[in-house]
Amino acid sequence: MSSLSGNQGPRIRAARTGEAAPYEAITLDRLTPVIGAEIGGVDLGNLTNRQFDEIHRALAEHGAIFFRDQRITPEQHLAFGRRFGELHLHPAAPHEPGHPELMVIKADENSKRANGEGWHSDVSCDEEPPMGSVLYIKECPPAGGDTLFASMYAAYDALSDRMKRYLDGMAALHEGEHVYRGLYADAGVADKASYPKAEHPVVRTHPVTGRKALYVNRGFTTRLLGVPADESDGILRYLYEHMENPLFQCRFRWRPNSVAFWDNRCVQHRAMWDYWPHRRYGNRVTVKGERPV
User: Which parts of the sequence belong to the TauD/TfdA-like domain (predicted)?
Assistant: First the structure.
């Protein structure tokens, strides 16, 4: 496992955002100094332009933002996502009837798995992976079912300078085949002939903030390009253990009618399936992104 001994502590402290200008149209409570903020004073189904602008800013500043006590219709959920860009269609997951952009997120006593159990960035195997995901959970188990979020800015900033130089300019292969084939068979979703795969930089530059973030994940990244397989395996293993350090994370405890919005370009997440046989149900809208650079 990676450690934070030596001079890593100062780099982690440098990764934390400082005090920003105050918000005027929304309220904001930070979950940790590194990532995450809960936003109040808004109805996502009826936002003013000023509120939208501040939510957009909050996402850039905190990576993952959360809303409580929202009661939005499917149409309002879709409309909120479209304010950030064109919507992404998932290559495998089930969706609500008549709404291919509205992904179904469900686990109950009959489920063999739950969505997002391992650390990942959504659909990073696409040539143009999603910019962000908006998850609206309507039903929650009595306990458990939290989602963990990790800042890939902080993970990159805490690397040694020598490791940063090693990774500079390196690319990795992201594949969907091993993840998606047969994954949704119990939901009645037939497999496709093939699933996406793409090559992306190991370190990407965020198009809005200009900050560098690690962009490999356990879910989809299969190998580093241009190095031997054993070297790739060793470096990826180190990066996965490093980026999963709790100091880079926040944890969101769901309640019914909560919404989480995270930036897939600089954040990874992991959903905890610790509530079987209870039910958790909601929908996810995903916003298209750009090719990582």
Answer: 30-286
Torsions phi, psi of 235, nearest 5? Answer: -70, -45
State the catalytic residues: 120, 122, 269, 284
- Cα(226)–Cα(171) distance, integer angstroms: 8
Question: pLDDT per position in the chain (293 positions), as tens?
Answer: 444 444 444 444 434 445 578 999 999 999 999 999 999 999 999 999 999 999 999 999 999 999 999 999 999 999 999 999 999 999 999 999 999 999 999 999 999 888 889 999 999 999 999 999 999 999 999 999 999 999 999 999 999 999 999 999 999 999 999 999 988 887 778 888 899 999 999 999 999 999 999 999 999 999 999 999 999 999 999 999 999 999 999 999 999 999 999 999 999 999 999 999 999 999 999 999 999 99
Q: Does domain 8-287 have CATH number 3.40.50.2000?
A: no
Among candidates 165, 159, 120, which has minimal Cα distance to 11?
Answer: 159
In 3D space, the residue among 80, 118, 115 whose CA is nearest the CA of residue 101 turns out to be 80
For the chain, give percent helix, strand, coil, nearest 5.
25, 30, 50
pTM for the full predicted model: 0.91
What six digits make up the tokens of 208? 């809005």
Domain ranges of the chain: 8-287
